[in-house]
Amino acid sequence: MLRKILTGLMLVVLLFGVISCAKKEPTKITIASDATFPPMEMVDTNKNIVGFDIDLMNAAAKAGGFTVEFKNTAWDGIFAGLKDGKYDAVMSSVTITDERKKTIDFSMPYINAGQILTVRADESSVMTLADLKGKTVGAQIGTTGAFEIDKVKAASNIKEKTYDEIGLAFEDLANGRIDGVVVDNPTAASYALQNDKYKGKLITVGKPFTEEYYGVAVNKGNTKVLDLINAGLKKVMDAGANKAIEDKWLK
Q1: Which CATH number, 3.40.50.300, 3.40.1440.10, 3.40.190.10, 3.40.50.720, labels domain 115-205?
Q2: Which terminus of the chain, N or C, has less C-beta within 10 A?
Q3: How far apart are CA 217 and CA 159, in angstroms?
């Protein structure tokens, strides 16, 4: 009888241990990112996804007690994949807009990155989009850069060309196939000022002409994931740890 009682107690202890271990297992969040947008997200020579967004979210995950996995996902269709449940969130230089808020929820904003114009270095007469009257300007399809061109192209007689990847737009610009590129300021600086391939060939002109904040996107009502992300981001930003990540990737 005593042996049965002891055996039963051992089973209860073991079961409690298994349950406790299961409870301690951190939540895993899968995040989609179009890794073609340096310095925010890109693929390095070892085929790893790296960049500002990746470092920031890894820091948030550590601070917030969850784990994160990034999936390289083409921008065209990235939000459809979110809606279909292929991943839990999108962190890919996503500007928080009222239009997007209609279909997705956003985390707290984590950086301000306005749109800016990039042209060839030998173009001395251009400072604004309006100065490219009758010429062709490129942007990545479905981005706020493309939206800004849409706003002025009719009045300024600008031709718009959109791309699946922003790097293709810069390649066309450098080779004279288009006359300007509109993109987020950090990405413009990465291509025009830091990329050895384009140094001396491309320049950014004027000042950022929008004020835009990036956020992490989740499906409407997914408060479980959103609360975890927000808690982690807040801890990172309250501690000022995001400044070191900015210094690493944006300066």
Answers
A1: 3.40.190.10
A2: N
A3: 31
The per-residue pLDDT for 250 is: 85
Using the CB atoms, write b or e for 182-221: b if 16+ within 10 Å. Answer: bbbbbbbbbbbeebeebeebbbbbeebebebbbbbbbbee
Sequence-ordered strand ranges (E) for the chain: 28-33, 36-37, 41-43, 49-50, 67-72, 89-90, 104-106, 111-112, 115-120, 136-140, 159-163, 180-184, 202-205, 213-214, 217-219
Q: Which residue has the tokens 């997705």?
A: 104
Q: Which residue has the tokens 């890919």?
A: 92
Q: Are strands 36-37 and 28-33 parallel, antiparallel or unpaired?
A: unpaired
3-state secondary structure of 74: coil
Share of the chain above pLDDT 70, in %: 90
- Looking at the chain, the domain(s) classified CATH 3.40.190.10 span 9-112+214-250, 115-205
Write the CA distances from 38 to 54, 86, 102, 178, integer angstroms. Answer: 11, 24, 28, 21
Whether this prediction's pTM lies above 0.90 is answered by no
**What local confidence, expressed as pLDDT, does residue 51 receive?**
96
pLDDT tens per residue across span 39-74: 999 999 999 999 999 999 999 999 999 999 999 999
